[in-house]
Write a structure and sequence with these properties.
This protein is mainly alpha-helical. Helix 3 packs across helix 6.
Length: 250
Amino acid sequence: MSATGTLVRLAVLALLLLFLAVPDVFAPLLRPLTENDAPAIYNQGSLLGLTLSHLQTVLIAVTGSTIVAVGLAILVTRPFGREFLPLSRSLVNIGQTFPPVAVLALAVPVVGFGETPTLIALFLYGLLPIFENALTGLTRLPGPVLEAARGMGMTGTQRLLRIELPLALPVILEGIRLALVISLATATIGSTVAAKGLGEVIIAGLLSNNLAYVVQGGVIVGVIAVLIYDGLSAVERMAARRAGRVAPGA
């Protein structure tokens, strides 16, 4: 990442934090998007609080997806677990292909309204990219390195923790990055089942025909997604260099 690119991202982050802290300062910019003297800034809750709730929901769901998906990938790449690969792949594919809205509709009668249905939907949606990347990372390790580890007398657990996972880490991080970005956008639908998040701002704008609300909710989600994408890409490149690999785009 060039110095100019870093400065631009830092400037965007500063603007985002300023907007979340004192949104009224930006009201003149958004007022042309309103009609009939409607408020230009969302006034039914704190934008900062909704942003933090949104991020919390996404992080909890993606953390759960990461634990389960990486655990499954480790299981099916061991000699005793290879027979479970087709079943594991089918399960995570179902999680990705089932529409999040349908997951919410099915989960609400069971767990009720609030954050839990959204967590379930995001958890299922994040499994596939993390599982497939972890599987790719663990099955494309350099053969001579693994042979050397065996020759040194390392046990299976030692090879996994000291050799396989560190070498596969850049590819696993790529899957986590994709899951995070997808979940940030998908989490906005959680507001339809009373989950706290930035979808609340967008839905309020749609219901009141206030384009300013829709824009500010969408822009906050978009900017956070871009910053997280770039930040994790930088972490992937560092992990790839430490593992002696070259990450895409490095």
